[in-house]
Design goal:
The chain is mainly α and 971 residues long. Helices cover 64% and strands 5% of the residues. Strands 2-3-4-1-5 form a five-stranded parallel beta sheet, sandwiched between helices. A three-stranded antiparallel beta sheet has the order 8-10-9.
């Protein structure tokens, strides 16, 4: 007979639903399914059937599994799944995955490089990258990701899965996960997904009696009616409808002779009542007892390692050569105790999780302890040749020591494994390991582990729990931490609180650290606290502390440089740059350059990015140069940091809006907007929405602008820090493009009212450029007021400078200094190439003032502005320019088809389409009669157009027109 049914029995509804999902994946109808049930109920069988159906349909299948022995290794089920699916084909080479490779390198070893060693910036980044990979793998027909035994999975894997579950809809991907219904993070994930209707949940119950009969028939190799009725009754009663137990009980009946083959069928030949669930334990104890001594030792060791184990680990502990080790493993396979694990190249697994538990139940506690202690000692004594994030040797040794009853040694190893996980950037695993170590540690050792746990909790964003533990630490006695370590913990939590925008708790931790430090503390602590104090001084209402904060930050930077503490140095230089911006950008950029120098010298890529993006933002504002921002984007991509890349692209999108490249801005916004929402990167998501609204505003599209601003408000997170941009750079500009100057002035006034109470760094939002220009035009600002604004450092920024030059030109014109006013306009127009919309808007406003005051060349300026806004499809401004031109008596361009063919210089001089058609014939030096014949007009009309061309271009004669036409033709 077979020990396992060759076919899946029952579960027809579940199979039908999975098959329907698989067949609709090509329609991008992604789905998440959880299968829960007790051990042996058939979760893995259902997953196998789904994988088989998917393979039959030609869908890629990736399978991974959680394991108690791997719970300390972050993302292990995901690494196994991708390894199982990509081992033969290799990872896909699609260009669209290139930005996500550094994040995926954590679970796809082939993509690890020296620059991207496989550490994602955060779990969400890895989750988004994995979502993109699954979408690519499933593009042709769909893709299936199967993750089994989630109850044994690490917290990072569960966090990734939660993200996938919430975002798989609309992608050609099926997520199938199995777990036991046990209290824990995995079952919490299942319940939450079910409440949100983000996943379907199958709770597998016991098989009914007809299915038990079919299961037995499959094992016995007979028709369903060939299974003795009393055997079916006993299997249903004792096995409880659990397929695994039914099969094991049936195997025991056949093994002990109570059920015997009779020809082509089977008959009862003994007392079936003796078969009880406890016999499962005896069955495996008996199988183990029949093994030769080496194989028996091997199976006990394997059971201690967990439901799954690697041949490499077994060989490391036993010291067996290949021949002896594989002979022992073959014996375990032949005894139907273990099977090769298809998800791992050298992996093995017990045929069922209950087998290992049953085997250990049959081994005396003393023997278990001896084997576990010996295995742990071997793991500790054997050096690890190459550090590998997938190697959980330290965690495994801790588990073995715990099994051996050596809680103190186990606690120390759990703590060491936790510290390693924290250094590797997996704070969730670190917290779990450290918490385990803290529970097992003796009181005298607990404080050291708690110290590490507080740091891990802060890194994981669990500030409340970290504060609670810090408060519970003893402050006196042998178990207390020394003062320096307590100061360091308070400082770390103060920094975490500030980064989490919890300034109140940050101030409390700062005060606690300062109280411990006293008046004359160690320079290292003094410097670190000075940086925290400086960030608190940047908050509204703390302006009186800014001078002290700057002195403290400078002292901290100098100390950090001397003491070779590069991270502290970067923190201090960054703070100094923030404090210096109010005085000028040269000084701020100097500090950022120092920060960049330290980051590059000490190989601190995260701090290098921070320096680059801040330098890039300043360069963009100062002179309209985005090259350093592009360098920051490259740095973010090299880091594999999707959130940093999104933050940089948000700035590049705003740069594209201001520099007149709405298509590039739209491409960035369309590509990043949904992803930032999915990843809960709220700050960048809202900035992208505001950039989209600004893009619409700078094209005069109020309805689109307001709809996007409404989405911006609905995105949450508060409006405070972006109010100036929304009012000044967005709504005020839109009002001006609608020729509604009073509304623009009202929006800018509202922004100014807000900014008086909320100091901010949005220097392009109007207060240093557009608003002073409107104040000068309206007569609200004189030369003294203008001079006061121009003295501010932000007045030197290119976007602001064009408007201030326009305001200066208007003042100079009113003062009767026409030549100086015209030169100011010339200087202003130098910004048009960088900021075409802002520059033409300033030109339109200045031209009107020049008309009124009688200076400059307002006709040419109005024509240039009219031409630009006509092409931009902003009819209000274009119409206003034409009205002003008519007032001067100047000719107004006829807006007919083909005008876009006229070179910009001729359009600015007012050349019409008909005039340009005549001009186009001049390159061939033909006479008026020939031109008239070609264009089907009269020679008199040709003569009239030629006269107009000479007047508008200022050329002396027909020969000059010939030469110009030839030059433009060659160009």
């Amino acid at each position: 007979m077979l020990t396992r049914s060759p076919a899946l029995v029952g579960r027809k509804n579940e199979i039908a639903l999975l098959e329907r999902i698989l067949r609709t994946l090509q329609d991008d109808s992604g789905h998440a399914v959880f299968v829960s049930g007790e051990a042996g109920i058939g979760k893995s069988r259902l997953a196998e059937e789904c994988a088989r159906q998917a393979a039959d349909l030609g869908l890629p299948v990736l399978r991974g599994r959680g394991s108690p022995s791997g719970a300390g290794t972050p993302f292990r089920p995901l690494m196994e799944a991708l390894g199982s699916g990509l081992r033969r084909t290799g990872p896909p080479q699609n260009p669209e995955l290139v930005p996500y490779r550094p994040a995926l390198a954590r679970v796809v070893p082939e993509w690890r490089t020296a620059d991207a060693p496989g550490r994602p910036d955060c779990v969400v980044e890895l989750a988004e990258a994995l979502l993109r990979l699954l979408a690519v793998l499933g593009r042709e027909a769909g893709c299936v990701l199967v993750l089994e035994d989630l109850h044994d999975a690490d917290s990072e894997t569960l966090a990734v899965l939660e993200y996938l579950v919430d975002n798989v809809a609309g992608l050609p991907v099926l997520l199938l996960s199995t777990l036991r219904p046990e209290a824990g993070a995995a079952f919490d994930l299942l319940q939450a997904a079910e409440r949100r209707r983000a996943a379907s949940v199958f709770a597998l119950g016991p098989l009914g009696e007809p299915d038990v009969r079919d299961l037995a028939a499959g094992c016995l190799g007979v028709p369903a009616d060939g299974v003795p009725a009393d055997v079916v009754d006993r299997l249903a009663e004792v096995g409880g409808g659990n397929p695994y137990l039914v099969e094991e009980l049936l195997a025991e009946m056949a093994g002990n002779g109570s059920l015997r083959r009779d020809g082509a069928g089977w008959r009862v030949a003994g007392d079936l009542a003796a078969t009880v669930p406890a016999s499962v334990v005896r069955t495996y104890a008996g199988r183990a007892g029949r093994l030769d001594p080496p194989a028996r030792e091997l199976v006990v060791l394997a059971a201690l390692l967990g439901p799954r184990f690697s041949a490499g680990t077994v060989q490391l502990i036993t010291g067996h050569d290949d021949r002896r080790m594989f002979a022992g493993l073959r014996a375990l396979v032949e005894a139907e105790l273990v099977v090769p694990d298809r998800t791992v190249p050298d992996g093995y697994a017990f045929r069922h999780a209950l087998i290992g538990e049953a085997l250990l139940a049959g081994v005396p506690a003393v023997e278990r302890a001896v084997v576990a202690r010996r295995a742990a000692a071997t793991l500790q004594q054997t050096p690890q040749p190459v550090p590998d994030p997938a190697d959980d040797r330290c965690h495994l040794a801790a588990r073995l020591l715990e099994t051996a009853g050596d809680d103190g040694a186990a606690a120390r190893l759990y703590a060491e494994a936790g510290r390693q996980a924290l250094a590797g950037g997996t704070s969730g695993v670190a917290v779990r390991l450290l918490e385990r170590g803290q529970r097992l540690a003796a009181p005298a050792d607990r404080a050291d582990i708690t110290e590490a746990l507080v740091n891990a909790l802060a890194e994981a964003g669990r500030l409340d729990r970290a504060l609670e533990l810090l408060g519970a630490l003893p402050t006196a006695g042998a178990a207390a931490l020394d003062t320096d370590r307590r100061i360091a913990l308070h400082t770390r939590l103060a920094w975490a609180a500030l980064m989490g925008e919890r300034s109140g708790e940050g101030a409390e931790q700062l005060a606690a650290a300062q109280a411990l430090l006293g008046e004359r503390g160690a320079p290292a602590h003094t410097a670190a606290l000075a940086v925290v104090r400086g960030h608190l001084a940047l908050l509204p209402g703390q302006e009186e502390h800014l001078a002290d904060a700057e002195w403290g930050a400078l002292t901290a930077a100098e100390y950090a440089q001397r003491a070779e503490q590069p991270v502290l140095a970067c923190q201090a230089w960054q703070l100094l740059a923030m404090l210096a911006r109010e005085r000028g950008f040269d000084e701020a950029d100097g500090y950022l350059a120092r920060m960049l120098e330290v980051a590059e010298a000490h190989a601190l890529p995260n701090w290098r990015f921070e320096a680059l993006i801040r330098l890039g933002a300043n360069s963009f504002m100062r002179n309209g140069d985005a090259r350093t921002l592009e360098e920051a984007l490259t740095a973010a991509q090299e880091l594999g940091s999707i959130t940093r890349a999104q933050r940089t692209e948000g700035l590049l999108a705003m740069y594209a809006v201001l520099t007149g490249d709405p298509e590039r801005a739209r491409e960035i916004i369309d590509r990043c907007l949904d992803v930032t929402a999915r990843m809960r990167n709220l700050a960048t998501h809202r900035y992208l929405l505001l950039t989209a609204a600004t893009r619409a505003a700078h094209q005069g599209r109020r309805r689109e602008m307001e709809a996007t601003l409404q989405a911006f408000d609905q995105a949450g997170g508060g409006r405070s820090f972006l109010v100036p941009v929304m009012l000044g750079l967005c709504r005020a500009v839109c009002a001006l493009l609608e020729e509604d100057r009073p509304l623009a002035e009202a929006e800018l006034a509202a922004a100014a009212d807000w900014e008086r109470d909320h100091p901010n760094v949005f220097y392009l939002a109007g207060r240093y450029g557009l608003r002073p220009l409107l104040d000068v035009l309206a007569g609200r600002a004189d030369r003294a007021g203008f001079a006061a604004v121009s003295a501010a450092p932000a007045a030197a920024l290119a976007w602001n400078r064009q408007f201030l030059l326009a305001a200066d030109a208007v003042l100079l014109g009113r003062e009767g200094r026409a030549d100086e006013a015209a030169r100011a306009v010339t200087a202003m127009r130098a910004h048009e190439e960088v900021f075409p919309t802002g520059g033409r808007l300033a030109l339109r406003l200045v031209a009107e003032a020049a008309l009124e005051d009688g200076w400059g060349d307002p006709v040419a300026w109005l024509r240039a502005a009219e031409d630009y806004f006509h092409d931009l499809d902003v009819p209000a401004v274009a119409g206003a320019c034409r009205s002003l031109l008519r007032r001067t008596g100047a000719s107004v361009a006829q807006r007919r088809a083909g005008r876009d063919r006229i070179p910009a210089g001729l359009r600015a001089q007012g050349v019409t389409i008909r005039e340009y058609e005549v001009f186009g014939q001049m390159a061939e030096r033909v006479g008026n009669q020939e031109i008239a014949r070609r264009l089907v007009i009269s020679p008199r009309t040709v003569e009239k157009h030629l006269a107009s061309l000479l007047r508008k271009t200022g050329l002396p004669d027909r020969a000059a027109l010939h030469r110009l036409a030839a030059e433009l033709g060659e160009a």
